[in-house]
Amino acid sequence: MLWYVGRRLLQMIPVFLGATFLIYAMVFLLPGDPIAALAGDKALSPAVAAQLRERYHLDEPFLTQYLLYLKGIFTLDFGTSFSGRPVSEVLAQAFPITIKLSLMALAIEGIFGVGFGLWAGLRKGGIFDSSVLLVSLVIIAIPIFVIGFLAQFFVGVKWGLVPPTVGGNTSFKNLLLPAFVLGSVSFAYVLRLTRTSVAENLTADYVRTATAKGLSRRRVVQVHVLRNSLIPVVTFLGADLATLMGGAIVTEGIFNINGVGGTIYQAVTRGEAPTVVSFVTVLIVIYLLANLLVDLLYAALDPRIRYV
Fold first, then answer.
1. Residue limits of the ABC transmembrane type-1 domain (predicted)?
2. What is the pLDDT of residues 257-300, one digit of tens each?
3. Rounded Cα–Cα distance for residues 270 and 33 (Å)
4. Are 162 and 267 in contact (CB under 8 A)?
């Protein structure tokens, strides 16, 4: 097991370097002068502009800037934003909020998606199955910002069940509605994926063999059908964690959440390459670790993988 984990960690190194290089290159190639954007309507004097470019290494070639950034990453120095605030402080403030929001959304889509998908798969072709397939298709078809505004208006404003905006209060109650909105589309995919996988596994030979041996339907479903059906679902959920964190820009904007999404958006508009790449770097690390965790969970779900 340790050998496998070590090999997977070594495989992550080129992925990490390639992803950070591409992100840094894309931010570097954005049009406009970040120093001029920092000044706003007031033009900076040539001396001050040159001093700022030297401070943030903007006068260096692209490759030199990237290597200096990598050096800072490996020494846990993420640099300084154009506002003069250390990027590490910005990370420490924004990431806990988005991680909490994303984990809540992941739990919602996992619990409800697997639950409804299992129930629909066991009753394939019935009224419940047809209903959840229709509802999930409608959720997938509606843009997330529409779902967000509708949920905010009806649940938060009209019915007053939860606060319509979050602001600085990131309690569980305040983040519950944004978490439902953020995980709504993924919930629909998890539901459909679980339903299809369960329906297919119900007709497999090993299920008929287990039934012929006299096992109860509940045990067949729990031990055989559900465990094998969860393998593609776990794969989707593992990859979806980083996707939720990176795609929270719209949800955080609707509910006024000061998390990763809003910070990345502001940094992109200002051309702050260190801030953008630092946030994306952390997202890449989370994505890689989530995939490693998914690979380890395979062994718990499928004994054949464990034996290999």
1. 95-298
2. 888 877 877 777 676 767 888 888 888 888 888 877 877 776 66
3. 9
4. no
Please state, in angstroms and rounded to a whole number, the distance separating the CA atoms of residues 237 and 214: 34
Residue corresponding to tokens 């019935």: 126
Residue 43 CB coordination number (10 Å)? 10
Q: In the block, which residue shows the tokens 């395979």? A: 298
Cα separation, 197 vs 232, whole angstroms: 8
How does pLDDT run across 191-202, given as a tens digit for each residue?
999 999 999 888
Do 115 and 300 form a contact (C-beta atoms < 8 A)? no
**Across-strand partners of 167?**
257
Are the beta carbons of 124 and 192 closer than 8 angstroms? no
Please list the residues that pair with 80 across neighbouring strands: 86
Alpha-carbon span 170 to 260, nearest angstrom:
14
Q: Which residue type does 38 have?
A: L
Rounded to 5°, angle at Cα 131 from 127 and 133: 120
Reported as type and span, the H/E element at residue 26 is helix 2-28
Residues in the chain: 308
Q: What is the pLDDT of residue 77?
A: 79
- Per-residue pLDDT tens digits for 85-126: 788 888 888 889 999 999 999 999 999 999 999 999 998 888
pLDDT 10s digits, 171-186: 888 999 999 999 998 9
Helix ranges restricted to H, 29-143: 34-39, 46-55, 62-74, 87-122, 127-141
Q: Which phi and psi (to 5°) does residue 257 adopt?
A: -105, 125
Backbone angles phi, psi at 167, to 5 degrees: 65, -130
Outline where 183-272 has alpha helix (H): 184-201, 205-212, 217-219, 227-246, 249-254, 260-270
CA within 13 Å, CB half, 245 = 24
Which DSSP category does 164 fall into? S
Q: Is 158 exposed, middle or buried (0-12, 13-18, 19+ CB in 10 A)?
A: exposed
Token digits for 5?
A: 């984990």
